[in-house]
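Journal club side-thread
Mid-discussion, someone asked how the predicted structure for our own chain would compare to the paper's figures. Pasting it here so we can look after the session.
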Amino acid sequence: MTTDGFTPGDADVFVPGLLGAIDVDGGPTDEQLAVLRAFVTHLWRRPDLDVDTLAPLGAHELAARLPGDETRLRFCEMVMTLELCRHPQSAAQVSCAEQCAAALGVTDIAVETTRTALEQGSAVVTIDLERIYGEVLPEVSERSLRDRYLRLEEPDPALGDRLRALGDLPEGSLGRAYIAFYQRNGFDLPGDDIHLPAHYVNHDMNHVITGYEPTAPGEIARSGFLVAANAARHNWLEFLLTMSIHESGVLTHGEIRAKFATLSRPDVSDLLAEGLDRGRRCTVDLSQVDHLAIAGEPLAAVREEFNVVPLAHPMVTDAG
């Protein structure tokens, strides 16, 4: 399987350009700079670039130095990530991000999300993002369950029992680790819980494979990993949804309550940048893997096959 992997672009252009995109209202916030530094260190591996001394690039100067539609789209996605890290959000920041997109001719990215939140409130953003996300829901749902279990109106004991049986697989297997993940976190299994069952089988299998726990930092890093492995629309929208829930604090999704400024916590920006770096090394789009077909395989072997490199600081030492 081939993927349209995340390529971070030329750091000598990207980093000054990103600085220019957040140089509003007296300058970047501490959180925006921390996230950008993490990108420089972990994504580009360029410790020689000092974001405190680099001169920012304006949008039109950037456009002259940034060729290629794919590269320009990637830049705007990173601008939007940094935009969501500004608290409180400001009209100047939103306008600057929009000016970057316009100067680069990028139109296929949801740049209006933060402006909508600023002008119309989080309720409107929630409706809009949930609608857009519904369009790609089949693509981020477990392959063998998409047709029957995309949505449930009532519990389906057969699905819950099918998943519970994964706990009988050999120790060290992906399926056994998946059940341990649910037990460790006190979650109901899909089928027992009716909320988007096919999606959450896929979502949580990828938590297990990537090693990220379902905390706000872990959710952001997991979504960053997937979009770096394959920068397709379905993965970008999931990353945007995750950032809107766990970083900007504008979106509540089902039973998941909105979080605010997660990336301002110690080491969380590094966790995201590491997730992007690990994801771009991964050889598959994990959202498209048939996890139930490989549930009996050793988790270590699955990670080796997909080139999922270990976390620098594991979030859990016993996966089950």
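Post-session note: Residues 69-83 form the longest helix (15 residues).
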